[in-house]
Design goal:
mainly alpha
C-alpha cells in the first residue's frame, strides 16, 4: 500500500492537471510545469496517506490474529483438561 498508492495518486494528479490545462487553453510549458509540480506534491501526499492506510490495515490484521489466538488459547484442548485426565486414569484402571 505504501509503495503503490503514491504512484497512483501522483499519476492521477498529473493527468487531471494536464486535462485542465488543455481545456483552459494554457501553453504547453505552463501545463507541463503545473503537472510536474502537482505530481510531486501529490506523490508526497500519497506517501503520507499510504503509510496511514498501511498502518490501519496492519493493526486490523494483527488485532484479528491476537483475538483468534486468545480464543484458541482459552478453548479447552482434548487431553489437557481435568476431565479428560480422569477419564484416562479410569481407562487405565479398568485395563489393569
Amino acid at each position: 500500500m505504501t509503495k503503490r498508492f503514491p504512484g497512483f495518486i501522483a499519476m492521477f494528479a498529473f493527468f487531471v492537471v494536464c486535462v485542465c490545462g488543455l481545456l483552459t487553453d494554457a501553453t504547453v510549458e505552463q501545463v507541463c510545469l503545473r503537472a510536474i509540480v502537482g505530481m510531486t506534491v501529490f506523490y508526497f501526499i500519497g506517501l503520507a496517506v499510504g503509510a496511514i492506510a498501511n498502518r490501519i490495515i496492519l493493526e486490523g490484521t494483527y488485532g484479528e490474529k491476537e483475538k483468534h489466538k486468545k480464543v484458541a488459547e482459552s478453548a479447552p484442548m482434548p487431553g489437557n483438561t481435568k476431565a479428560s485426565k480422569q477419564v484416562e486414569n479410569v481407562a487405565q484402571v479398568k485395563t489393569e
